[in-house]
Amino acid sequence: xxxxxxxxxxxxxxxxxxxxxxxxxxxxxxxxxxxxxxxxxxxxxxxxxxxxxxxxxxxxxxxxxxxxxxxxxxxxxxxxxxxxxxxxxxxxxxxxxxxxxxxxxxxxxxxxxxxxxxxxxxxxxxxxxxxxxxxxxxxxxxxxxxxxxxxxxxxxxxxxxxxxxx
Length: 166
Known about the structure:
Low-confidence stretches: none
Radius of gyration: 15 Å
């Protein structure tokens, strides 16, 4: 895949994206009680939104879907630890992720929250046109593969022990 076929997000541009995304949330009048980040890419987005929206209550859901560039599992899988529904009970939740590509990961997390929260909305840096979830807050729309600053370079160490104990 050539660079012309990719969307490139730099750290500096991510700073702008996070601030503009937070402004969209604030201007809509939505005041989340907590931000639920989808790890790993959503961790950066959630942190940025948390600071900009003055929300200190951040939670994490680990969901595995992508296994490589444009390679994914058949379905996304929640990895432990999964937040206890009581932690979300009655809250206004903002789900944060880096991209709504197919929408499968966001749908899994949004549906997990739906029965337990007062309101759930999604905020992403990028949304692709074929996403099955249309997010309430989107910084940019693209149909290209995205080079994120946190995942463009290979890992410093390649780990073979990625099995998590519950």
